[in-house]
Task: inverse folding
């Protein structure tokens, strides 16, 4: 069975990834920060036979390492770094602790997860590493300024993914850096242009199409290329 691991799986896009991959027949390793509070995810896992839930606070390296140890015999075909936070910031109003926290969750954790699960990824058939970034991480697209914390954490995530593309190619691992669109989730708010279903359906399509030969792309959910 093809296996996908998703972080931040209890709500928003992460939950929708779990739902759609489960419906597509994947074995889903659904990771969330607090299982006790993941009511909807537990209900979904209860009516599906291919979803297993694991507790993972991605900002805690010890938890990443111990989950990797627990899942050492799994083959992870698709790893999706989805968990993320948005902390607002503009000139004169930047909380430095939140900036550090955002780098920890949005940038460093995705790297640590790949590094610690690399063995499970390289032993799988598909060998795909995906990070959910944002168009707000594009330097080229930054025509309005602001959002220092979020933008910089996603730009750094993009840079990290670019390096992984080169460094993992000889192990057959393909990478994809995906912008989900502006989506109506807790983070995106009610004004988003699309819902989670449409966003995740599109992103899964891009992940399906990914091969080692086109590794390293930065795309939106509809497959449109974004300038770095
Ligand atoms: P969301 O509804 O706010 O959900 C965020 C998810 O990340 C939650 O499951 C949350 O878990 C999890 N998370 C946060 N910190 C975590 C930690 N330390 N450990 C484990 N999980 C943690 O956001 P979303 O819209 O689904 O966003 C998903 C991804 O898409 C993010 O990377 C975001 O930056 C990106 N994105 C979203 C949009 C949009 O319009 N929605 C646009 C561009 C990019 P808890 O419930 O425990 O907090």
Result:
């Amino acid at each position: 069975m093809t296996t996908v691991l998703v972080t931040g799986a209890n709500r928003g896009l992460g939950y929708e990834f779990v739902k759609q991959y489960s419906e597509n027949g994947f074995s889903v390793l659904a990771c969330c920060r607090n299982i006790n509070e993941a009511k909807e995810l537990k209900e979904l896992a209860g009516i599906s036979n291919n979803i297993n839930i694991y507790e993972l606070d991605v900002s805690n390296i010890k938890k990443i390492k111990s989950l990797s140890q627990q899942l050492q015999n799994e083959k992870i075909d698709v790893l999706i770094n989805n968990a993320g936070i948005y902390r607002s910031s503009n000139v004169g109003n930047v909380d430095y602790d939140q900036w550090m926290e955002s780098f920890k969750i949005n940038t460093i954790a995705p790297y640590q997860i790949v590094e610690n699960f690399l063995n499970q990824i390289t032993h799988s058939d598909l060998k795909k590493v995906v990070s959910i970034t944002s168009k707000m991480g594009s330097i080229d697209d930054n025509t309005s300024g602001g959002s220092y914390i979020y933008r910089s954490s996603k730009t750094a995530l993009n840079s990290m993914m670019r390096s992984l593309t080169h460094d993992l190619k000889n192990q057959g691992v393909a990478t994809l850096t995906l912008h989900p669109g502006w989506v109506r989730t807790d983070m995106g708010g009610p004004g988003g242009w699309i819902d989670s279903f449409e966003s995740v359906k599109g992103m899964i399509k891009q992940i399906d199409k990914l091969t080692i030969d086109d590794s390293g792309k930065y795309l939106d959910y509809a497959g449109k290329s974004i300038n770095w």
User: Anything to note?
Assistant: The longest helix spans residues 96-122. DSSP finds six helices and seven strands in the chain.
